[in-house]
DNA sequence: CCCCGCTGTCACCAATCGGTGAGTATCTGG
DNA sequence: CCAGATACTCACCGATTGGTGACAGCGGGG
């Protein structure tokens, strides 16, 4: 389909010593993991395979089998890595939210999640993967992502209780669904249901609509 | 990745005449198109290729090149077929909606779209494809689906005007995004953001939350 | 010092992929 | 009845895939 695979350019220096690889298992493992994450983020799950990862990592695929037990283990390692996502995404002013109403909080969280997803290609690719396949690999990744997201929401929510009379869990899930799909559609095709999602002005419109929906429920 | 391709079982009848295929180009073309749609709906876009379609259609892949000009043309034909989607999805009681408020209408449309998508595996796969890739193939399909959806919404809306003061287009796009992601996530993994999406009771909860969001904006 | 284990490389496998050229079978009009 | 168009099949191509077994080079502990 898409041909023209770029020739890897790790040819040894013509004259000097051939850039001997240091024998460092840890570094190699990290290189493989980084290659896998980068490949997934940049190319998507379509061309995500042993050969591609090894090519990008600049090592033999055999090492992936040895160190991670194959692609499955590698994907699992990516999932484990996703746990660190939370730490990077908790703004320092989280303490300042204690006095907000639940509506304020959810509006804020919605916009934060929107931006976070929009600026995280790896996470986007994983979400897209989740809704496209249902293999064991994807399930593991999905679980890790789900946990990270839940933890993040929990940390951000603090001790604020949702209002009575509404199924906040369901409403929030629907809001999150909207956010995820908007980001995916925007990144993939630049639009969603007729609404353009390219310029930052487009995204402001989307964010406004999102706010309106959240405010409509939580006041 | 996923191996164990099922052996096609179209071996000729052992004793009798070998189930001679009638030479009927029209029928073959239809068989190919049906095979493509069925394959896409059941297996997803991952293993969607010339060989797989030809295998399922029970003919040689050469015919796909001849009749459709390759996979691209075949995908385009699927897109053209999507235009018929609208006709099947307009309930006969559409006339009864003229007197509704915009909020009533959008709530209704949201639930209708939710059910329609939920019961249409092909459309689901296409939506998933749209957010996963950005090839020419997908763009064509996406455009066709977008048109069909817009046409459907237009037909359903009739002459009802949206309320002033809200960016109805943006709000509706967000609602549609939520619907699409809910359906995709439910079909793929049975849950979304912690909300289970398996039983019909689960879906009722989701629908209720959706209604609440729509009502919150449009009253 | 030498040997063994660890790290990394290479060659090869069967299977499948998209794509093509050439051939066979059937039907039809003269 | 024959010729040519049409419908269809088959065999093959190079490339790429996931996966494995054998081997080379270096380093540290006996």
Automatic annotation (TrEMBL), chains A, B:
Pfam families: TetR_N (PF00440). Gene3D superfamilies: Tetracycline Repressor, domain 2. InterPro entries: Homeodomain-like_sf, HTH-type_TetR-like_transc_reg, HTH_TetR, Tet_transcr_reg_TetR-rel_C_sf. PROSITE patterns: HTH_TETR_2. GO terms for molecular function: DNA-binding transcription factor activity; transcription cis-regulatory region binding. This is Transcriptional regulator, TetR family. It comes from Rhizobium aethiopicum. Residues 49-68 bind DNA.
């Amino acid at each position: 389909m898409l041909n023209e695979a770029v020739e890897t350019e790790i040819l040894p220096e013509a004259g000097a010593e051939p850039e001997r690889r240091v024998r460092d298992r840890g570094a190699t493992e990290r290189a493989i993991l980084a290659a896998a994450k980068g490949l997934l983020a940049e190319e998507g799950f379509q061309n995500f395979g042993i050969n591609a990862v090894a090519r990008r990592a600049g090592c033999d695929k055999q090492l992936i089998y040895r160190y991670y037990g194959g692609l499955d283990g590698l994907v699992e390692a990516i999932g484990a890595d996703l746990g660190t996502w939370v730490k990077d995404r908790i703004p320092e002013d989280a303490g300042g939210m204690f006095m907000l109403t639940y509506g304020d909080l959810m509006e804020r969280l919605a916009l934060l999640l929107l931006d976070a997803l929009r600026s995280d290609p790896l996470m986007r690719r994983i979400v897209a993967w989740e809704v496209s396949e249902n293999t064991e690999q994807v399930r593991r990744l999905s679980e890790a992502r789900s946990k990270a997201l839940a933890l993040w929401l929990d940390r951000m929510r603090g001790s604020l209780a949702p209002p009575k009379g509404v199924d906040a869990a369901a409403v929030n899930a629907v809001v999150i669904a909207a956010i995820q799909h908007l980001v995916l559609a925007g990144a993939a095709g630049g639009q969603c249901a007729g609404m353009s999602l390219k310029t930052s002005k487009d995204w402001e419109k989307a964010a406004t609509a999102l706010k309106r929906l959240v405010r409509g429920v939580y006041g």
